[in-house]
Amino acid sequence: MLITVKDIPITGKHYTCQIREKDLEMDLKFLKPVLFDGTAYKSSDDIRLCGHITTCIEVSCHRCLEAFPLELSADFEVYYRPYPTQAEISDDSELSLGELGVMHYEENVIDLAVVTRDTIIVEMPMKLLCKEDCLGLCPHCGENHNKKQCNCHEEHNISNPFKAFFKQTAM
Ligand SMILES: [Zn+2]
Ligand SMILES: [Zn+2]
Predict the structure, then answer these.
(1) Are residues 114 and 148 in the same domain?
(2) C-alpha 60 to ligand 1 mean position (Å)
(3) How far does the centroid of ligand 1 lie from the alpha carbon of residue 147, in Å?
């Protein structure tokens, strides 16, 4: 969804909408609609956009590889400025430094799908676990230990020469 900068009043404008998955261009499986709820404020040509994104996506657990739903609920705050003209870029070499963290809009429009995508990327946890205490997969037979215990652990211990060694020294 695109918002038109000139339509934003001084008092700000509230936007609630569903962002279409195809506009996000993300390789994710969405289990719930991607909902955008935000307000845009304007000060001359500068725009401040803040709000909240909610959705639910399907991800794979890093330990057991099972797919599970991940609820996402994230706040965002971004600043936009018109795209600098070529003259402005070459005039002021410090511009690029000062512009860090500021997005640019072109043709008087801001695409809400872009800020939504960025927010989802930032919000994604580095470590995805289906549950805090996920037991993961057996490194020997691949059994999912959340579902079933295998016998590899015992066999592994029996064949562990150090265990026999410690047993002997204990006696
Ligand atoms: Zn897991
Ligand atoms: Zn096993």
Answers:
(1) no
(2) 8
(3) 10
What b/e readout covers 75-109, taking b as 16+ CB neighbours within 10 angstroms?
ebebebebeeeeeeeeeeeeeeeeeeeebebeeee
- Residue 61 CA to ligand 2 center (angstroms) comes to 18
Note whether 64 and 81 are same-domain residues.
yes
pLDDT score for 84: 75
Give the Å distance between the CA of 133 and the centre of ligand 2. 18
If you measure from the C-alpha of residue 57 to the centroid of ligand 2, how many angstroms do you get, rounded to a whole number?
30
How much is the pTM? 0.77
Residues 48-100: tens digit of each pLDDT: 999 999 999 999 999 999 999 999 999 999 999 988 777 666 665 555 545 55
Say if residue 96 is in the same domain as residue 21.
yes
Instruction: Give the β-pairing of 2-4 and 46-60.
Output: unpaired
Indicate the number of domains in the chain.
2
